[in-house]
Amino acid sequence: MASPTYAGKGLAFCLLFSACFLFLFQDVNGYEPNWKSLDSRPLPGWYDDAKLGIFVHWGVFSVPSFSSEWFWYRWKGIKAPPVVEFMEKNYKPDFTYADFGKEFTAEFFDGNKWADMFGKSGAKYVVFVSKHHEGYTNWPSKYSFSWNSMALGPKKDIVGELMNATRSRTDLRFGLYHSMYEWFHPLYLKDKASGYKTQDFVNAKTLPELYEIVETYKPEVVWSDGDWEAPDVYWKSKEFLAWLYTNSPVKDTVVVNDRWGSNANCTHGGFYTCGDRFNPGVIQKHKWENAMTIDKRSWGYRRDAPLSDYLSIEELLQTFIITISCGGNMLMNVGPPKHGQIAPIYEERLTQMGSWLEVNGEGVYASRPWTYQNETVTKGVWYTKKTETSGTSVYAFVFYWPDTEILSLDLPQVSSATKVSLLGYPALFNFHTRSPRGLDISVPPIAVSKMPCQWVWVFKITAVEN
Question: Where do the Alpha-L-fucosidase C-terminal domain residues begin and end (predicted)?
Fold first, then answer.
C-alpha cells in the first residue's frame, strides 16, 4: 500500500539540516557520541523519586480503534485475518489508511482537562506519543508535511497544547515518545532493503524530527521506540544523545530510555525498559521502567474492549508496588478515542490511583528498594524504604487485609526505638518481636468508615536496623 504523501522536494533540506546538527559533535566538550561516555551520565534524580508516569497513545490508529495501535501493519503488513475482514466488511475496497486521517477529529480534546486528570492521578510525569510507527505526527512537523495534526485531522498542535496545559496547571514533567522507524515510509524501506547501509530515512526524517521536538517542546523525557530492526549506528543514536546531554535545552534534566538500536535495549541509555510490561519481580542493578497498559491487550483505544480487558485498581496497585519495590518506575498507559474525550474507565482508574497516593504517597515518592523486596511469612507483602538522619523506615505494602488480629512480618529487624503505624490512620499499633527477627503487629478492628483507603494498606515501621 502506498504510504501517506511525503514531499520529496524537502529531502535535500532535511539532509542539510541533519548534517548541520551532526557538525556540532566535532566541538562537543561534554558527552561524547560513544556508549562509555553516554552511559556515564548520572540519571537526573527527579526520575527515580517520581515513581509513576502516565503514557498516552493517541494517533490515526485511534480512528479504526480495532485490534491495536498496530492496525495498519496488521492490515497491510502481515495481513492479519481479523483486521482484513474488518476492513472488507466496513470500508470500500479502495479505502486507504491515509483516509483515516481526516476522521481523526479530536473535537473533544482539551489539553487542560487532560492535564487536570493526569495531575489528579498522583503521577509525576507524562509521556505523550508524538509519533507512532504510522508516521503521523501530533505536532506540525516540517518533516512530516501533509501527514501531521495541523495539516490533516484535528488542525491543531496537539503536542503544544498538551505541553502548555501540563506545565501551566500541574507539577508533572512533560515528556514525549517518538518512534524511530515508520512501517511503510519509502525511504525507510529503501534503507532496509540496502541492509541499512544507506541512512536516507534517518537523515531526512528521524533525526530532524527528534531535534525538532526537543528544541520546540523541551521534553524532560525522550522515550524512543521503533528501533529494533537496525543497530544504533544506523539510527545515529549516540550522536543525538551526545547533543541531547551536552547542548540541548533540557541537557540537565532530560531522561531517556534504552530503545536506541537493536544492540542497545536493556544495555545502554538512561533507564531500561527491556520490553513492554517489563516487571521482573526482583531487584535490578540498573534503574528501569515498567511501561504497561490499563487495557491488557492494547496501547491504543479499542471500541470493542470488554470490561474484563481493563486492569482493576487492585491489579494496578499490585503491579505498581511490585515495580517500585524492585527499583522501577511504572509508566501507566491510557488510550483516548479519536474524539479526544478520555473514556470513563481510564478516568476512574487514574482517580483511584490518585486517591490512594494521597494517603500512601509517603511510602512511594522518593522511596528506595529495601534489602528485601517481599515478605516470606505472609503472602502479598512488599517493601520500600526511606533513610533519614533519624534512621531507616520500612514501608510494608499489604495486598490483603489480615483476616486475624495479627500481621506477621519475618524480615524487619526492629529496635528499641521502633514504632509501627498505618499510613492515613492516627493511632500507633502495638507489636511483639519475633525470633530471630521480625515482628507480629497487633491489628485492632477498624470500622470501614475509619479505614484510610480501600485497597492495599501501608504499615510504616521506623528505626529498622537493617
Answer: 373-462
